[in-house]
Amino acid sequence: MADNETFLQDTKEALTQILRPYQQDLNKKQRMADFLKQCVRCTERNDFLQLDEMLKTKMAQNIEQDEELGTCEDSFSLLREYADEQVERYRIEFIEDLTKLAEEADLPMDLDDFPRFTVLKGIEGSVDFGKRCTVINKKILKSVDPRRIVAAVGKVKRQLYERSYDPQAFIDSLYQIYDKIIQQEKWSLGDSVPIQRFYFDYVISLQSKPFFQNMEKMKFRGYSMEEFAVDLWKYFESDIESTSDGYVLQLRPGRNHSLWLIDDNGEKRQITGISFQED
Length: 279
What we know:
Blueprint: H1 2-45, H2 48-54, H3 58-65, H4 72-104, E1 109-110, E2 116-119, E3 124-128, E4 133-136, E5 139-141, H5 146-161, H6 167-185, E6 193-194, H7 195-205, H8 209-213, H9 225-237, E7 247-253, E8 259-262, E9 268-278
Antiparallel strand pairs: 1-2, 2-3, 3-4, 4-5, 6-9, 7-9, 8-9
């Protein structure tokens, strides 16, 4: 009985060793076949965007170098040339449509660095034709339709720029949080407070009394970093130069434990600390 078990186990291992490379080869061939089928479907639909993306992959190169499928090389070469031409034409038309729609929506969109674009300070986007998506302030819009992009950007603009805002009240509220922290830590006026701690304490200060009695998600008042950055920029752009008591804001750049904010020059920069000094 033991001899039979040993025989069967040894035979199983021998067959497994024979099967493994054969199965790996089959899996490789299947992946190549699936890739070619997808190319055929894209060609039928004239999906040049997807073709352009696929024909730049390692899989396309592997197929061209394969002994059995190498005859695809000529077809792939012609498809690459076709896709390049169509994508470039599409890009030009896309930019024209996006520019026109942005102007109609009164959005000052800068497309000089396309596929990246900006709209006012604090609103940035990037179009990815291959993945059929647009990223706007790190949020993904699963579309490259100019109309949907403009609508999404318009929504972000309203969230950041059409809120009730008073630059004097804003800078005074920042100083109140700064003063509270330096008193707690027994620091001096002018000492830098870590920006991440400051941001946390400031968001907490915006919450209502009912929130602290019952911290339900529905009662939390959100205040995104984008809102914070834009509010700082609107303050720098205003005629207000200090708090009501004459304290002047200072942002300290750095990399460790930082937040991406907008400085007084309108540049997006990593900020590690915040402080106030007497004017």
